[in-house]
Amino acid sequence: MRLEAFAGDWQLERELEDLRDGRHGRFVGRAGFVPAPGGLRCREEGALTFGDGAAMTATRDYLWRDGGAGVIAVFFGDGRFFHRFLPDEPDPGGEHACPPDNYRVRYDFRRWPRWQATWRVSGPRKDYAMVSRFRRAG
Description:
- The protein is an all-beta fold.
- It has one domain (about 5-135): Lipocalin.
- It has no helices and ten strands.
- The chain has a ten-stranded antiparallel β-sheet, with no helix packed on it.
- A hairpin with a 5-residue loop joins β3 (about 40-50) and β4.
- It is globular, with a radius of gyration of 15 Å.
């Protein structure tokens, strides 16, 4: 799968589980992948709720780039490297060390154009799991 396959608008639903304090959260919104210098700019925006709390507006920005040899390299919105993955592998995934915590992701493209990213974040400061489900908007 090539980077260009992600271009366009996606509906996004994300479930979060804080394994340390038992809080559950949900994000509902969209992710837009638009052409940008060097790749695709990904902008996530939507509403985030925890438990019965009030919804909060939430946004995230990333830059997805062609890393060569089939690799997709993901950067934070400010240009710092985040992780890389090979989408055509049977079990694509990546890691990001943010000492003292570690972020691990597994992607699932088997139902393309529906796909998901499953994150596990662990360390002394963080302990949570997150599943993001994407499907084409419209």
